[in-house]
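Q: Can I see a sequence and its folded structure?
A: Here is a first one.
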Amino acid sequence: MRIIVTGAAGYVGQAVLARLLHDGHELTAVGHRRQVGWPPGVPARHLDLTDASAARAAVDGAEAVCHLAGLTRVRGSGAAVGPYYRANVVATLNVLDALVARRRDGDDPPRVVFLSSGAVYGPTGHAPVPESHPTAPTSVYGATKLAAEQAVGWYAATGAVSAVSLRLFNAAGSVRPGVGPDDSTLVARALAVASGRSPALPVNGDGTTVRDFVHVADVADAVARAVATPARRPARVFNLGAVPASVREVVAAVEQVTGRRVPVEHGPPNPADQPWLAADTTAARRDLGWTPERSSLERMIEDQWRIGGAQR
């Protein structure tokens, strides 16, 4: 299948490229960064998807688009409302419009796999959250992901595209040397302390806040399965998570894997932080046949430490 991967220069994008290439697909990588070590034989298009004409060029020839591009930081998104809406919503609309415009009568609708986020949910209590849980994002980032996800759903409802949205909670681990997640993520920050690049890990509150972690290779597996799953209307939505863990548990696992101490500096709780957020992945396991096989907390930290280069 001819697949365009947007956001291909990013952490998840590089894992998805590797997986889809392994599966034998014909790929084109789309990203805004030029200095990227693309897999051999994968052509790249360096484009800004917030420009409609660039989006049309990006999806030319596509049978499917894995739309992973966008801004991803929850904290700080409130101070960058315009950039987040342009990168996460306008760019998505441009990709969808471009796919609709190039479709001819009689063509099968192109497949869109959209990378959404667990940040679309509001307060969840202390039980894994299913896809049916009300959406009530508490950040600009979450709001933009929800708006883009809804646009994907409405376009799919017309039959112009077939679509799957994947609500990713927290990716960790690594599959390519030197490629790791955003340095603002919890595991990355804890490993920076273990490596000596940071003196201590700042923690809001007592460290009991729980988040759900999943190996980036398992995320890539879910994307590949979403590309291949039979088309259905309306769009499908699936959660992606694997291991709920508190900040304390992540710190303890980092110390165990690295053999180094991770000093913690506790500050006041952040009232905007949900105390517990974890994914119910029953639907993805049942309907995509997805199993997060690499997602033990220790394996994610080990891979990020040794493969992703966090120990340097």
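Q: Show me another, different protein.
A: A second, unrelated one:
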Amino acid sequence: MPANRVQIKLAGLVDPSELSGDRQFSMNLARGLEVLRAFSIASPALGNKDLCEITGLPKATVARLTYTLVMLGFLSQDQIDQKYRLGPGVLSLAHPLLATMAIRGIARPFMQRLASETGCSVNLGVRDRNRVIYVEAARADRQNPLLPDIGSSRPLLAGAIGRVLVLANPAGQTQHIINRLKTFDPAAYEKHSTALRADVALFRREGYCHARGDWHSDIHAIAVAVADPTSRETYALNCSLKISSHENEHLRENVLPKLKAIRDEIEHALRDEQCRPEHWRGSKPRKSS
């Protein structure tokens, strides 16, 4: 395999420019996806000029991409201000993924029980590039103002759930992710580097990460990794609670043992799911190389 294709295994952490010489890599598709990724809650409506500034792509390229994406239903264009918004086609891509993500249905009752027993908000997340995407939630702490919607995202290093997704990898991959995060957003990396260093030691020693008001001063959280054999993906499970700093020991002493126990139950249920005939009956055998 060519050296410039090795990093594809780390999903989302490849700069398209690094693959310009790879004939298997579609640069046009990559540019179209960069246009779609430019939209956010903070910037839901963007014009071609905005997209050029965000993506760094030439004006003519952006114009062709937005026209194509509108024709395919992935963008819609406002006839008054001429700006673009994400179209229903994007949602149609996301739903099949969420609906077939076995871990969501399996983890949900365990998460609800944990939320009920601890009073915490319990969230399940997975990494996408330099962010954590929330895929399931059980909410008990109604005083917590930072309750993420399914599909919403936050920077990886800004909380315990994201830092787990950085650290729960083989050492080489963890370091590669950290190096990429430095490149993606040096200011954000510097801001959260102290918390990351503390969690590196904590994760190695005790297998969890701890956010002490990193994202919001009175929101504290702990998180552990969940291995999903049905998808071969690593997820992170957290408990977050609105508390004062002197109550931090409550999370470590009272909530952490329950969080780890629930994680173990979820992983056991996932292994059982993997062994069910209907799980493997529909899969095609791999071709020998």
